[in-house]
Amino acid sequence: MNETFIPASNYIRKKWYVIDCKDERLGRISSSIVGLLSGKIKPYYHPAIDVGDYVILINADALKFDREIERRYVFQPGRPGSSLKTIVNALPKQIIEKAIYGMMPNGLAKKQLSNRLKIYLGSDHPHNAQNPVKIDNLETFPNNL
């Protein structure tokens, strides 16, 4: 008889990771962050249990966007004059949060995204007490666990 391993709440220890966004592309870095936040890179991942980690993004203002385009979003459709809003690339925190939120699978990790993802425009962050692990190369990181 097969027995499925389901991690208990005392088995899970959440880690903290620091990622420097300087000269990184939005789509590349977002797909790597989704794996960390949802816990899919862990060997004991289970979709019904929250096994994701915390991610700290520094230098978010130096993130590279694919191109400088005006993004238009429709708020309150059917209301003339106030429904179409233009969002520029001057708000990197909101753009990063929206990109990562759209890539996350539905579940516990997506609901707690705002608690787990910390975005700072500068290079300083107040989370030194958690002993975060600095990730230098995102392409090779999941293979080094």
UniProtKB/TrEMBL annotation:
Chief location category: plastid
UniProt keyword terms in alphabetical order: Chloroplast, Plastid, Ribonucleoprotein, Ribosomal protein
Single Gene Ontology MF annotation: structural constituent of ribosome
InterPro entries in the cross-refs: Ribosomal_uL13, Ribosomal_uL13_bac-type, Ribosomal_uL13_sf
Subcellular location: Plastid, Chloroplast
Signal sequence interval, chain numbering: none
Similarity-based family: Belongs to the universal ribosomal protein uL13 family.
Protein name: Large ribosomal subunit protein uL13c
Organism of this sequence: Chaetoceros muelleri
